[in-house]
Amino acid sequence: MPRPRPLPIDPLAEAKRQWIAHGWTDAADGMTAVISVMRAQQLLLARVDTALKPFALSFARFEVLRLLAFSREGRLPLSSVVARLQVHATTVTSTAERLVRDGLVVREPHPHDGRAAMLALTDAGRDLVERATDALNAEVFARPGLSGTDTADLVAIVARLRRDAGDFTDPRPQPEPL
């Protein structure tokens, strides 16, 4: 897909100008920040989707596989996957069903809770997620489109927003600054 030609003006700068012209000056900076983050998310997700396409993985499927691969035994309770990915249980359940169907994950009974399920990575799932991670690292994460300093600043700013929204609390002891 060819890259679209850049617009002659920044649409967000124009939106901010319009916000101010309509008397919403007190909300103009916030609107610009929110829409800027949303547009950046679209741009980055497009790059991620392109990198994952050869592996027939969505980012949601990749996240579940990567999380399982990071775990000590390659398996986690479904509830832990939901909590760590911070998505709704039905989303994880649906994603897990597709991964099971494709032979990348298996469902196992929880060893201590008869009502709960475990998700376990298969050898095929482990191989696929390692190859997909290599592609994401090479095509997206190693060069996100920002300098190292800008990347660190952005991560720190967004981390504060996430913390203040209740996404997480500051752990003790503190990890190294992002």
TrEMBL record:
Coiled coil: none annotated. GO terms for biological process: response to stress. It holds the Pfam family MarR_2. It comes from the Bacteria. Residues 27-163 form the HTH marR-type domain. GO terms for molecular function: DNA binding; DNA-binding transcription factor activity. Keywords: DNA-binding, Transcription, Transcription regulation. This is DNA-binding MarR family transcriptional regulator. It comes from Microbacterium ginsengiterrae.
